[in-house]
Amino acid sequence: MSAVLQNLVNQPYKHGFVTEIESDIAPKGLNEDIIRLISTKKNEPEWLLSFRLKAYQKWLAMTEPEWQNVHYPKIDFQSISYYSAPKLKQKLASMDEVDPELLRTFEKLGVPMHERAALAGVAVDVIFDSVSVATTYKEKLAEVGIIFCSISEAVQNHPELIQKYLGSVVPVGDNYFAALNSAVFTDGSFCFIPKGVKCPMDLSTYFRINTEGSGQFERTLIIAEEGASVCYLEGCTAPRFDTNQLHAAVVELIALDNADIKYSTVQNWYAGDENGVGGIYNFVTKRGLAKGINSRISWTQVETGSAITWKYPSCILRGDNSVGEFYSVAVTNNYQQADTGTKMIHLGKNTRSTIVSKGISAGHSNSSYRGLVRITPTAEGARNYSQCDSMLIGDQSGAHTFPYIQVHNNSAIVEHEASTSKIGEDQLFYFSQRGIDAEEAVSMIINGFCKDVFQQLPMEFAVEATKLLSFKLEGSVG
Amino acid sequence: MIDKNSRAILSVQGLRASINGTEILKGIDLTVKSGEIHAIMGLNGSGKSTFAKVLAGHSAYEITGGSVQFEGNNLLELPPEERARSGLFLAFQYPIEIPGVANTQFLRLAYNTVQTKRGKEELDPLEFDDFVREKMKLLEMNPDFLDRSVNEGFSGGEKKRNEILQMALLEPTLSILDETDSGLDIDALKTVASGVNQIANKNNAMILVTHYQRLLDYIVPDFVHVMQAGRIVMTGGKELALELETRGYDWVNANKSVTGVIA
Ligand SMILES: Nc1ncnc2c1ncn2[C@@H]1O[C@H](COP(=O)(O)OP(=O)(O)OP(=O)(O)O)[C@@H](O)[C@H]1O
Ligand SMILES: [Mg+2]
Fold first, then answer.
1. Quick check: CB of B19 below 6 Å from ligand 1?
2. Exposure class string for B122-155: b at 16+ Cβ within 10 A, else e
């Protein structure tokens, strides 16, 4: 591979700084006392503590999964701190009371926390280490009955909703990391769109891990009642540390009759350095329940960061005529590893799902698509279309596809297409012979490759994603 | 179209190049002046495409000797994109497919890059669309090819036409057409040849690599060179191509030492 390609992929990570801020950190290690401490700090009701303890018991009985196509040393769960919160004044009456150091951090990251400075019409919930530090546009959304706040606040102010829905899509013992999250989650976003309401603006959560040696275990819960719709965006970054950090989040989405939830992620956690040292382990469980008839759950993700990404945003299509979508771009470079994909579980009649996955691997990285399409006996007339494309840059990278298709109803139509391509030296030579340099060539090829996914993103996010990809792959070509 | 006032565009001296340690070009000498059309013929594997790609700056080849001046500059020092921007064009023997990149987008970026280098105005997508459609008419190309991915699924002949379209857009000083005639049907050959003839003028030059005399009926060369094992072993006028057609390359072998290298 030529030097141009190399340089293209090897740009420094620009979000790698640490904010000097006083934090309230729990001692390292995991046991029932720590869980009680978290619960007490957050002033939680008794049922939530039992939810956590039950999850903890399940987790203790489980073993860390090894079937995924990623490799990393065993995580020492006793060396992680499970609670780290920036020390804040007791109750913030307004955004102006947020620690200026924190505000500066988010300004540096390009996340607007002042409503007046905010992105046109996007409400933001900001999670710093384990705690939600600010939510913008809360009042405006409340006018139409939308609840958008941190999950801790929701536990205090809307306990009946939390109790009803938390763990209803991802049960506490669902998998190893979901169980861990259920035991120790510290904060996250909560969003409730009542019956018939179309959310007037995009909602967004911005996650930032700041403290070295802390894990981030956030919990997101989004409920769209009958006929409601919402478009939700998630972004994330972390400072650069030589140690690996664990990010084990759980996201649950529930769409009732005719409801529509669109969830987009641009994930840019620190990926480790060019030799594979440091970086985030991103082990996340994301699942949407298309519970009602004609409901729709749509996942779009652009995964560029993390040392290891391991996630399968999924849809359970229970309502008749419900629709599940998964659009994904996963980029790996250097020694990054990604094992990502989706699960589409068809239960209702005439349910439809679409999977479009684009994997790009450069450097010594490896990326795998793993997807399950299950058509159950009740899913009369179900349809799935899957398209999984991989692109290799250079000759040290790998791409793998693991599609699992289980059809238990004869009326189903399932289509799967896959392709692997390579940005070869001869393609780049062709561009250069027409006066186009390697950077522009790669960006053109990659954007063409990812077009089907990018057009699912809201405008600003799509622009951001395009930039991020070029940035990410800068130096990989040549 | 040899002209007394012509200037040297390309001057190759003793050029040697290898790939993976195997020497392919073993000392090539060639001078191309403005207004000239040169044809290079020769057996399969004799090094014609290698010569073209070395001139264009393909990174797989290592230059082991000799020099190349292009428009007064040391060509071998320039990266391939600079060579292209300064007016060197290669129509590939096997144009590569670029899935996902719309032809029109690719053509416009190439055009604007070269225009910028020449200190001229770039065209926005709408202006470019008009401009490129005019050029396509010249080559009797269907505008549908603009929206398709670059060369993807194009037939052999369609790919070749797309190469000539690029040449028409970029208006190079030196165009090297590597077997552009192979894979063209007779009508296409005439269309492409007439396109090439419209582009050729006294300020630019062409090198046509071909196996067939037929192309040279339509694009008449000033010189015909025969390449063999990485060298130009014989040079003549346009009648040399006819002679080769009737006598074959064995005749070259028997006569090259006698005839010597003229150019
Ligand atoms: N990577 C390589 N390693 C070794 N030899 C190579 C390599 N690439 C090309 N060659 C050899 O270089 C020689 C010249 O090839 P080239 O493509 O220049 O021939 P050509 O004259 O264009 O032939 P044709 O008329 O068939 O197009 C051939 O013998 C070819 O096998
Ligand atoms: Mg050839």
1. yes
2. ebeeeebeeebeebbeebebeeebbebbbbeebe
Chain B's closest residue to A439, CA to CA, is B81
Nearest by Cα to A366 from A398, A395, A343: A398
Return the bridge partners of A220, or none: A251
Distance B50 CA to ligand 2 centre (A): 7
- What does the domain layout of chain B look like in residue ranges? 8-97+155-259
CA A393 – CA A445 distance, rounded (Å): 11
Q: Would strands A352-361 and A383-393 be described as parallel, antiparallel, or unpaired? A: parallel
Per CB-CB distance under 8 Å, the chain B contacts of A427 are 96, 98
Tokens of A413: 């139509």
DSSP assignment, residue B183? T
B50 C-beta closer than 6 A to ligand 1: yes
Q: Which long-range contacts (CB under 8 A, 24 or more apart) does A160-163 make?
A: A161/A190, A161/A192, A161/A223, A162/A48, A162/A190, A162/A221, A163/A47, A163/A48
Q: What tokens does B180 get? A: 């552009």
Closest CA to A230 of A198, A276, A205: A198
Note residues around ion ligand 2 (Cβ under 5 angstroms). B 48-49, 93
Query: What are the DSSP E strand ranges found in B34-169?
Result: 37-42, 62-70, 73-74, 88-91, 98-102, 149-150
CATH fold, domain B8-97+155-259, is Rossmann fold (3.40.50)
A245 three-class SS: strand
Strand boundaries in A347-397, DSSP class E = 352-361, 366-375, 383-393
* Surface of A (8-27) touching B: CB under 8 A: none
Above 60 in pLDDT, residue A89?
A: no
Cβ-based contacts of A421 with chain B (< 8 Å): 99
DSSP H/E element including A236: strand A229-237
For tokens 């440091």, the residue is A278
Q: Side by side, which strands form the sheet with A413-423?
A: A131-135, A122-128, A202-208, A229-237, A260-267, A296-303, A323-332, A352-361, A383-393, A413-423
Return phi, psi of residue A70, to 5°: -135, 155
Instruction: Tell if the CB–CB gap between B98 and A427 is shorter than 8 Å.
Output: yes
> Could you tell me the CA-to-CA distances from A442 to A5, A261, A464, B60, B170 in Å, in that order?
8, 33, 17, 19, 21
pLDDT, tens digit only, all 263 positions of chain B: 556 678 899 999 999 999 999 999 999 999 999 999 999 999 999 999 999 999 999 999 999 999 999 998 999 999 999 999 999 999 999 999 998 899 999 999 999 999 999 999 999 889 999 999 999 998 889 999 999 999 999 999 899 999 999 999 999 999 999 999 988 888 889 988 998 999 999 999 999 999 988 899 999 999 999 999 999 999 999 999 888 888 888 888 777 744 444 43
